[in-house]
Amino acid sequence: MEKSVIIKQEVINSLLSYAQIYHPKEGILLLRGKTSKTEINITGTVIPPLATHSYSFSSFPFYMLPIDSSIVGVAHSHPSGAKQPSIEDLNNFYGRLMVIMAYPYKTGEDIAIFDRAGKPVKFNVT
After folding, report:
1. Measuring CA to CA, which of 7, 32, 80, 114 is 20 to 30 A from 45?
2. Could you tell me which residues are beta bridge partners of residue 101?
3. Model pTM?
């Protein structure tokens, strides 16, 4: 059974704003939310400790993260405009979901969500 994904409009706005601020470098954020048997509800974002922002990648040291069961995934921007995860993205997957914000970072259409296998996940905005 596939879980439905719900994301707040405020979170989308936050993701797009963060990506705009770091452009043309990649930005990276952690996704905070709640998971149940039937859905994943993304309710906020967290800046990871010691995040690195570069023109071709963004990352953070996983070992620096506190134990926090509310982290449901990671979000990062693609200044190139590509809304597909790279092999490196999939190899550094953290949590249950990956959100990619693609340039020009204007609307929810510039956001894509993926599962651990790199398959697109449909989501609802509340």
Report:
1. 80
2. 77, 111
3. 0.92
